[in-house]
Amino acid sequence: MDIKPVFHGSDIEKICEYYHLRKEDITNFGANVNPLGLSEHVKEVIAGHLDLLSSYPDREYTSLRDTISAYCQIPAEYILPGNGSSELISLLIETLAPKHTLILGPTYSEYSRELSFSGSTQEYYHLREEDNFHLDVEDLCRALKDGYDFLILCNPNNPTSSAILREDMEQLLTFCSGHNIFVMIDETYVEFAPDINAVTAVPFTRKYSNLMVLRGVSKFFAAPGMRFGYGITGNAEFLRKMKEKQIPWSLNSIGAFAGEEMFKDQEYISRTRELILPERERMYRAVSQMPAYKTYEPYANFLLVKIIKDGVTSYDVFERCIKAGLMIRDCSSFQCLDGEFIRFCVMMPEDNTRLLHELGTG
User: Fold this and answer.
1) Residues 315-353 pLDDT 10s
2) CB 243 within 8 Å of CB 80
3) Sorted alphabetically, which keywords does the UniProt record give (predicted)?
4) What sign has the CA pseudo-torsion 224, 227, 228, 232?
5) Each residue of 261-317: pLDDT tens digit?
6) Which residues are CB-neighbours of 223 under 8 A, at least 6 positions away?
7) Of 44, 116, 197, 356, whose CB count within 10 A is highest?
8) Does position 218 have pLDDT exceeding 60, yes or no?
9) What residues have CB less than 8 Å from 219, skipping those under 6 apart?
10) How many whole angstroms separate alpha carbon 295 and alpha carbon 281?
């Protein structure tokens, strides 16, 4: 039997080896990283400050937290920098020590992986394709009455690109607060949202002590190799306990310095949104008109697409695209995602046009 390989968004090396392709010939639509790449300003200032590697970072990351505070409009004492959101997810779960966790799925597999090292049970609440992956908040609240003490959300969600908007989020947080359920919200993609203020839960950290919001710089700021993330919570005692468990100087000196420069680079932030927002809308409209596919309103920098043409699988479309030098994500490995789905992010306009043409010929 011919077993088809399963690749993830960061598996470009494995894909190139399998298909005998060169990495430099591939346009990676699978990693969801800003196609502008690292800010030129950030590159220049990092190059001019390499001597920072000769000294320890400030153990409190005071200047960095002040910069994030201004960027997020939240008190600096709410902020915990870390070595990527992966470290913060691990620290949060270790500190919280939940007994029964509910994960909004389909979603990023790292949540489940980190929970597997804890004593918590883990179950999924499925976003439904027939609802276009829009959350039914009241139904989720009914499910949460089943003895859960921890809820994990990604908002906007990966891979569905759907989002829970402000009013629904407040209803959900209010319910969880009244039932002693701690909520972790991963906002990796929130800066790509059409209206960030309509999606972000950061302002709610002033009101709800059962909430922590996580963000990073891997996707929007195109810096996955920096391994820099930050958590935000108004629960001072919980933050203190997380910090106690964190390895000292978790974020290196260059990462802390570069992080400050990223959040101050308004030109780069504006250029990114001016690129992504109209291109995402163009791709969404184009795919919506293709009879072989169904897609869903996107809030992140990527689209989830269902293949509705008989006899065509997600692997078929993935393979056709990769042979054209276009790497998309075959979503068959995502839990809670029944059917044939692919996902691809917004790249530069000429590359997006190439992908739309390839999809349109299938």
Assistant:
1) 999 999 999 999 999 999 898 898 899 999 999 999 999
2) yes
3) Aminotransferase, Pyridoxal phosphate, Transferase
4) positive
5) 999 999 999 999 999 999 999 999 999 999 999 999 999 999 999 999 999 999 999
6) 38, 42, 217, 258, 262
7) 356
8) yes
9) 32, 33, 34, 188, 189, 192, 301
10) 12
Q: How is residue 216 written in tokens? A: 């990073």
Query: What stretch of H or E contains 326?
Result: strand 326-327
Q: How far is CA 101 from CA 96, 121, 122, 224, in A?
A: 11, 6, 5, 27
Q: Which amino acid is at 289?
A: Q
CA distances from 257 to 76, 232, 271 (A): 16, 19, 22
Per residue in 209-233, is it b (16+ CB within 10 Å) or e — as a string?
ebbbbbbbbbbbbbbbebbbbbbbb
User: Could you tell me if 31 and 10 are in contact, meaning their C-beta atoms sit under 8 angstroms apart?
Assistant: yes
Nearest to 135 by CA among 197, 185, 78, 204: 185
| Cα 361 to Cα 347: distance, rounded to the nearest angstrom | 20
Closest CA to 183 of 170, 198, 166: 170
Which amino acid makes up residue 93? I
* Residue whose tokens read 């919280």: 96
Q: Which two tokens stand for residue 214?
A: 């996580």
Does the pTM exceed 0.70?
Answer: yes
Q: What percent of the chain has pLDDT over 70?
A: 97
Tokens of 280: 């995402």
Q: Regarding beta strands 211-216 and 293-295, do their DSSP bridges make them parallel or antiparallel, or are they unpaired?
A: unpaired
Chain centroid to Cα 189, Å, comes to 5
Q: Which two tokens stand for residue 271?
A: 């250029």
> Phi-psi category of 72—alpha, beta or left, where left has phi over 0 and alpha has psi -120 to 50?
alpha
Q: Report the number of secondary-structure helices (H) and strands (E) in the chain.
A: 13, 13
Q: Which of 126, 130, 129, 154 is nearest to 140 (CA)?
A: 126
List Cβ neighbours of 193 (8 Å cut-off, separation of 6 or more).
Answer: 156, 163, 199, 200, 299, 300
Tokens of 186: 């991963």
Q: 135-187: per-residue pLDDT in tens?
A: 999 999 999 999 999 999 999 999 999 999 999 999 999 999 999 999 999 99
Measured CA to CA, the distance from residue 101 to residue 351 in angstroms comes to 40
Contact 337, 106 (CB under 8 A): yes
